[in-house]
Amino acid sequence: MAEVATFLVGVRQALTVKVRIEAWSQRSGQAPSPGQLEASLRSQCCLESKQWRPVNSRVTEDLIRRNAEHNDCVIFSLEELSLHQQEIERLEHIDKWCRDLKILYLQNNLIGKIENVSKLKKLEYLNLALNNIEKIENLEGCEVLTKLDLTVNFIGELSSVKSLTHNIHLKELFLMGNPCADFDGYRQFVVATLQQLKWLDGKEIDRSERIQALQNYSVIEQQIRDQEKAYHLRRAQEKEEALRKLAEHCENEGKKRRSSPGFDGLPYPDTHATPPSTLESKGHVQVPEIQEAHDTKRLNESEDDLEFWNKPSVFTPESRLETLRHMEKQRKEQEKLSEKKKGVKPPRTLITESGKALNVNEPKLDFFLKDDEKHNQIILDLAVYRYMDTSLIEVDVQPMYVRVMVKGKPFQLVLPAEVKPDSSSAKRSQTTGHLVISMPKVEEVITGSRRTPKSVKTTSDGSREQTHTRTRV
User: Fold this and answer.
1) Which residue, 124, 234, 264, 369, shows the most beta carbons closer than 10 Å to its own?
2) Average pLDDT for residues 350-357, to the nearest whole number?
3) Four-residue CA torsion sign, 36, 37, 42, 44
4) What distance in Å separates the CA atoms of residue 52 and residue 10, rounded to the nearest whole number?
5) Helix, strand, or coil here: 255?
6) How far is Cα 386 from Cα 209, in angstroms, rounded to an integer?
7) Is 447 helix (H, G, I), strand (E, B) or coil?
8) Distance CA 208, CA 380 (A)
9) 271-285, 306-320, 406-420: least confident range
């Protein structure tokens, strides 16, 4: 089955697969084979690297709390938990932290074994569709389990369903899309083994079907055992082939690294010398040879990616992991490329080399500057966001300018008169949230018998003009 992992890893919900299988069953009267399922998914699924999340692989307390918002992030009393499509590779901690769970969604992960759920005594529905499970086990402790979904896994040991005989309340079981679903006598074996079942793969089990399955049970059981042996031999070969490919891949990657020791993929003979790209980057100009090398590298990566997706692959747990690792690698390379394109933003110039302060309004806030002659002070009303935490605001008053850092972004304003930084005060308005900074002016300068306040401008006709500003720098 070529590259079915490519399509299964990106399926958002196991229910999508289930609906397609049930629709197929209604048309043809039987469940589709894995090959037919692959073709059906191929027509619907389109995978792109940007759709993938970073690999999580572990069940952590933080992960559970982030998915427990419907329960006020309280995890010990959770009754329903959804951890689908989190790239979880192992089940752990859930049976200790969430013992009241009744519904647990774990579809579309990379879980290879059913474990650490036996203490979930209240669990009624467990969804493990689209994972890497190869055997049904460790569910005996789930005493009230009613529904179990194992759609599209890698269960080839069909006799492991016998472990579910202890789950006397189990009514629904989904095994379609597994290798064991292709065994001759698959349905009859399951129906005869699990007599408490009412539904199998979405199809109701009637009384006559169960009686017939029980009558032929001994013959069917032997057939199942023979098919299991053949499957185990095939899986052993697949695992051996997967290990061989992994070793070959690691060797090829090592050769690529050794052949490209330079920073930009070019072999520099002197490792202590500055690469050409570093010298040219100062002037924001690239040497044509370096640009050509970058283009060649991107072309090679594109060809490698195309080769990976076009390479025939057997549908195995190893191929699913390989697909995920490849897409994770592509995502990281894309992020690195984006970071290089963004570059480092130069810091904002607030004070010139000559010592002159500049007007800056990086947070783009409205403000009002008032010259209060009555109280001999300058008042700055800065319209910061009403619900912003005051700890995110820093105020710095200097004799000739005032600077306010709002969430790290500078607001700086040159003052019309010299003020006293030590006597200045800042407070937030309780109604609007605005920041109000009061800055007392330095005492008036006395020249001869005439006193002129520094904050008042004199126009050409001798009249005085008071400064009022309401604008955005």
Assistant:
1) 369
2) 88
3) positive
4) 8
5) helix
6) 69
7) strand
8) 87
9) 271-285
199-213 burial, b at 16+ Cβ within 10 Å, e below that, comes to ebbbeebeeebbeeb
Q: What is the pLDDT of residues 414-471, one digit of tens each?
A: 999 999 999 999 999 888 889 999 999 997 654 444 444 444 333 334 333 343 434 3
Question: CA–CA distance from 24 to each of 105, 179, 390 (Å)?
Answer: 24, 17, 60
Rg (CA), the chain: 35
Tokens 């110039």 found at: 349
Whole-structure pTM value: 0.54
Helices (H) and strands (E) in the chain, counts: 11, 20
Residue 103 is given by DSSP the state: E
Structure tokens at 107: 């579809």
Straight-line distance from the first to the last Cα atom of the chain, in angstroms, rounded to the nearest whole number: 64
The contacts found for 124-132 with CB under 8 angstroms, 24 or more apart, are 125/149, 127/14, 127/84, 128/153, 129/14, 129/17, 129/18, 129/153, 129/174, 130/8, 130/11, 130/14, 130/17, 131/106, 131/107, 132/317, 132/320, 132/321
C-alpha distances in Å from residue 321, one per residue of 236, 304, 330 = 17, 18, 14
Q: Give me the phi and psi of 377, to 5 degrees please.
A: -150, 165
Q: Of 44-53, 260-269, 314-323, 457-466, which has the strongest mean pLDDT?
A: 314-323
